[in-house]
């Protein structure tokens, strides 16, 4: 079931307040049009009744696809809540959810993302049956081999599933500040498949590197820099 509520929002341009409907959780099985809205950057988008400005309200959203057993929590990183605070709050939420579950049921696996583009990327990735931890390991390798040109502080590295081929993955660099898309990078699928075989033999190595719920090569590199 999708969950929405009415919220009073002030237009950032003209200051006009208005009541709008915003979604806290979407179930794309029962309401597939909400997935379309997300993919078209229209979910939780508001058009000011006075000046006509169209703007998106970034707020936590739980994405659910029961058929694919997919549960993803998008918690936008803001000036008031950084990555560390988001992870801490998310862990507390999981603990509360676990306490509410029946004793004979396990808490479903929940992924955490901190931007809309990462949410869309993860949806495409899981729908394509790709191993998220292996893909992030590939990203980690690309980052560490090209730190001079792909600084994780400045760029996200996103997998473009739609433009990838049977022979190559297509990754695109996105400026984390401007959101502009830049250079494309290709990575052979054969190497990915070899890593998947390694994962099947020894998943602990990948799990230790990306323990979740936020499985992200960029976040791992940023955390390493903060510790130095």
Mean pLDDT: 90
- Helical fraction: 25-40%
Number of domains: 1
- Radius of gyration over all CA atoms, rounded: 19 Å
Give the strand order of the largest sheet, numbering strands 1, 2, ... along the chain.
1-2-5-6-7
Structural description of this entry:
It is built from seven helices and ten strands. The protein is an alpha+beta fold. It has one domain (60-227). The strands form three sheets. A five-stranded mixed β-sheet has the order 1-2-5-6-7, with helices on one face. Strands 8-9-10 form a three-stranded antiparallel β-sheet. The model has no long low-confidence stretch (mean pLDDT 90).
How would you briefly describe this protein structure?
The protein has 228 residues and is of the alpha+beta class. Helix content is 36%, strand content 26%.
Descriptive terms for the model:
228 residues; alpha+beta; 5-stranded mixed beta sheet; 7 helices; 26% strand
Topology:
Elements (H helix, E strand, L loop, with lengths): L2 E8 L6 E11 L4 H8 L5 E3 L6 E3 L4 E5 L4 E5 L8 H18 L10 E3 L2 H12 L4 H14 L9 E5 L8 E8 L5 E8 H13 L1 H7 L7 H11 L1
Parallel strand pairs: 2-5, 6-7
Antiparallel strand pairs: 1-2, 3-4, 5-6, 8-9, 9-10
């Amino acid at each position: 079931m999708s969950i929405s509520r009415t919220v009073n929002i002030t237009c950032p341009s003209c200051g006009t307040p208005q009541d709008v409907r915003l979604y806290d959780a979407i179930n794309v099985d029962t309401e597939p049009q909400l997935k379309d809205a997300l993919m078209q950057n229209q979910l939780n988008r508001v058009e000011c009744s006075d000046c006509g400005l169209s703007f998106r309200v970034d707020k936590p959203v739980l994405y659910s696809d029961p058929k694919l057993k997919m549960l993803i929590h998008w918690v936008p990183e803001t000036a008031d809540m950084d990555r560390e605070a988001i992870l801490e709050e998310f862990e507390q939420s999981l603990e509360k959810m676990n306490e509410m579950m029946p004793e004979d049921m396990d808490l479903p696996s929940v992924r955490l993302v901190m931007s809309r583009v990462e949410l869309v990327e993860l949806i495409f990735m899981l729908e394509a049956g790709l191993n998220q931890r292996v893909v992030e390991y590939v990203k980690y390798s690309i980052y560490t081999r090209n730190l001079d040109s792909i600084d994780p502080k400045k760029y996200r590295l996103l997998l473009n599933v739609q433009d990838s081929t049977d022979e190559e993955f297509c990754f695109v660099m996105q400026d984390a500040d401007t959101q502009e898309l830049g250079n494309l990078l290709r990575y052979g699928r054969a190497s990915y498949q070899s890593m998947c075989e390694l994962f099947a033999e020894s998943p602990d190595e990948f799990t230790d590197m990306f323990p979740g719920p936020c499985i992200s090569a960029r976040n791992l590199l940023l955390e390493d820099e903060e510790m130095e």
